[in-house]
Write a structure and sequence with these properties.
Blueprint (H helix, E strand, L loop, with lengths): L1 H31 L20 E6 L5 E11 L3 E11 L2 H9 L4 H15 L13 E10 L1 E4 L28 E4 L5 E11 L2 E10 L5 H5 L4 E2 L3
Parallel strand pairs: 3-4
Antiparallel strand pairs: 1-2, 2-3, 3-6, 4-7, 5-6, 5-9, 7-8
Length: 225
Amino acid sequence: MKRNTSILRLLFLMSFGFAVMMGTQQVFAQTTEPCLPDCYNDQWIPPYPKDPYTLVVQLSCGERVLVRFRYRKACSVWNDMYLEGITFVGGYAAATRCGLTMTLKQILEEATKGVLENFHASPWEIPNEGECIDRWRVMYGACWRADFPLLENVASNPAPADTPPWYDPQATSGSLWPCEYRICCLDYYRLCNVGGRFEATKYDSEPAQCGPEPLQNPNCVPVCD
């Protein structure tokens, strides 16, 4: 009888430990996975937590950035993109030159346009010449931060505590990443094919407020319209 009681107690502790572990994983997933506004059965490509796609695009400040993003076809209607992070190819010096002439929001929007105009893969739609498609949506965290000085005079922090997994403190990378993963901006874009060249234009947006924790961090900048 005593042996049976010990076995039951062991099974209970194992079950309890497993439940706690699963609960921790769920909380972690809820706070780090890319947010979805709808169409919850349509997963991002690549699926989280695999590494995102990357694409190098040129900004109006003259510097190139490596954009990290995911995409999906949502409800067989929307062409969705999730903007996950940005790193200046020229590192900290290039990021500072650009960051002191552009706002963080402007950098995000130009990086977004660069991806929409230069990355075309199934199941995204590709407009024919002379055609425009309005069914493009872009999501990104409501608050962002940088490891370099910005026009908004955000304090630089070379080794922030909440760094994303791809951040390399030895590289002085000149990176931007979201402080807020659970709440996202939602922008609507029109993509046109003009003589074989693609042009992306934002025509609407659904604003969102930063959560209380990012708002308390002076390095986090609200970026939603």
